[in-house]
Amino acid sequence: MNLDILQQPFPLNKAQIDFYKQNAFIKIKEVLPPKVLAHINNVISDKVDELNTQTTALDERDTYGKAFLQIFNLWTQDEQIKEIMFSKRLAQLASDLMEVGGVRMYHDQALFKEGGGGITPWHADQYYWPLSTEKVITAWIPLQGVPMEMGPLEFAAGSQNILTGRDLSISDESETLIGEKLRLTDCNKISEPFDIGEISFHSGWIFHRAGANTTDQTRKVMTAIYMDKDMILKEPENDGQTNDWKTWCPGVKIGSIIDSHLNPILFER
């Protein structure tokens, strides 16, 4: 499979960049052609099947466990996946949306919501990340179309400025408390299907969730988390951030640029 398109630019217009700046998320259609996406689906699905260690029945897991199977940093496990995750097209989009001079890899993760899988509660990703600024973005890459029945992402547009709930991990509590806060604000909640080849990008502090997968098919999603190439490691504020420091930023000192061997620059102007 020729994957040259992954290294080719995908131009954005000013309206798209302005939309992201205001809302802290954006969905972009036709980023990946169907044939390329089908190949990526096969490669990543095979590796997830190989690495998955989940043996607990779905109905015996907690809310987090029912939300998805989660496997990290596949790029370090497979050369084909490394080529996909090091895509200059995706990294350029991340850099353009954040309006930074370049981006590094923070980490990637496969998020496979099994048929019958539960909701992903309201949360903000950056709760888990020891990163000093908001210049971090997640590319959410469905490996197939995602109808409403499969549980696409739902975004609370503009919620990146709400402080309530930032101290909550993904849980029943975050679903309830953040949901209540959002009902008292004027944030529009955007929940729409994803077409084949459509990708979303969202900031670390925007609140988002996903519905349950009520089909009998797995909702397969790959994600890449990009950060400003000059991102500084901050003092961790919770156990999750301490774990992320040791896991995704090994050897980096607090107050230094996050430039470990796991954080290569993927795009630079």
Automatic annotation (TrEMBL):
Cofactor: Fe(2+)
GO molecular function: 2-oxoglutarate-dependent dioxygenase activity; iron ion binding
Domain of life: Bacteria
Signal sequence segment: none
Keywords annotated in UniProt: Dioxygenase, Oxidoreductase
Keyword Oxidoreductase: yes
InterPro entries: Phytyl_CoA_dOase-like (IPR008775)
Name of protein: Phytanoyl-CoA dioxygenase
Species per Swiss-Prot/TrEMBL record: Flagellimonas aquimarina
